Amino acid sequence: MCSALSIQNATRKRIANKQHPHSKRVGMVKADLEPKSGGSGDLLNEIRILIEDARRQTAAAVNVGLTALYWRIGKRILREVLGNKRAKYGDQIVATLSRQLVAEFGRGFEKKNLHRMMQFAEAFPDEAIVAKLWRQLSWSHFRELLPLNKSHQSDF
User: In sequence order, which residues have a C-beta less than 8 Å from that of residue 3 and are 6 or more positions away?
Assistant: First the structure.
């Protein structure tokens, strides 16, 4: 955001140049983007901050979305295909499903990744609890937690 000081400076400039506030400027020169002496309204730096904040927020939203997706895929495979059991034919179903998903959506859905998603859903069976966690932890964090066998380890 522009500070009050930078708005005042711009107004003073317009008055000094007898420029109407709605008149068009043909272009900005480099000096318009550089910090003004004594002012905190550095346009370039403020825009950089806006861009960086938007990128961070976007990355966080993507992480939440992917983690939620992976949990739901794991839960769906466990519930619908395997009936919450490790059936003999389950591995073959997961392999077939993986081939179809990889063909359509890419390597992120390889068999080993589907198994991780299933592990994720097994390790955190309650969506309400995992939903609170996926706002704070990324998929990478959850992958690190999956090998922990004992419930008190993952609770920690």
Answer: 39, 40, 41
- Tokens encoding 97: 């499903």
Q: Can you give the three-state secondary structure of the chain, one letter per residue?
A: CCCHHHHHHHHHHHHHHCCCCCCCCCCCCHHHHCCCCCCCCCHHHHHHHHHHHHHHHHHHHHHHHHHHHHHHHHHHHHHHHCCCCCCCCHHHHHHHHHHHHHHHHCHHHCHHHHHHHHHHHHHCCCHHHHHHHHCCCCHHHHHHHCCCCCHHHHHC
> CA–CA separation, 81 vs 69, rounded Å?
17
Q: What is the pLDDT of residues 12-46, one digit of tens each?
A: 454 444 444 444 444 445 555 555 554 456 899 99
Threshold 0.70, pTM exceeds? no
In angstroms, how far is CA 93 from the centroid of its own chain?
31
> Which amino acid, residue 81?
V
Q: What is the C-alpha separation between 77 and 84, in angstroms, rounded?
A: 8
| Sole residue written with tokens 């859903």 | 121
